[in-house]
Amino acid sequence: MEYAATGTTGYPRGVLITFRRQEEKKDMIKRASSAGILVFLVWGAIDYLLHGLLLKPTYEASAHLWRAQSEMNLPLIYLIVVILIVCFVSIYSLLISNKSLSTGIVYGALSGLATGVGVGFGTYIHMPVPLTLAWGWFLGGWLKGVVAGAIVGAIVKPSQGTPNQAL
């Protein structure tokens, strides 16, 4: 049986390595969870500013296109947002090996670009929404992606001394 280099633990080397990896994974899960919660809060603030203030007059001018406020399904809205955030944070945590602030921002910008184009202009193609809304949704989606990327890039990274790799 091979023992750790110091010989003080009495545990086989493989047990120590496995223990360290489990601890590193637990730490990354905590960081990813923290990042997800922060993204949720920041996205809520962005949504309030974008939809509740900036685009509100445009929504009011096109009220015939929208459900009444009383018909909005808030639990479903929040479920969708949580699923988006879990997917966003999981892709970064599990699939991106070079974790850094700049990598997170690039990932978020690309993800936000795809989301913004799909939501903003994809909806504009199929529904008679004002072009102002399409641009607002596009820019909002892109901004939310960049901000979420910055958050995961800043928070979801290995502990010091741990190799920078995907889970």
Keywords:
167 residues, mainly alpha, 5 helices, elongated
How would you portray this structure in words?
It is a single chain. The protein is mostly helical. The chain has a domain at 72-167. The chain has 5 helices and no strands. The chain has helices spanning 13-54, 56-61, 74-95, 101-126, 131-155. Helix 1 (13-54) runs antiparallel to helix 5. It is elongated, with a radius of gyration of 21 Å. The model has no long low-confidence stretch (mean pLDDT 89).
Structure summarized in a few sentences:
With 167 residues, the chain is mainly alpha-helical.
**Overall strand count:** 0
Q: Which spans of ≥5 residues are poorly predicted at pLDDT below 50?
A: none
Determine the mean pLDDT. 89
Q: Would you tell me the structural class of the helices and strands?
A: mainly alpha
Overall 3D shape: elongated
Give the arrangement of secondary structure elements.
Blueprint: H1 13-54, H2 56-61, H3 74-95, H4 101-126, H5 131-155
Helix pairs in contact: 1-3, 1-5, 4-5
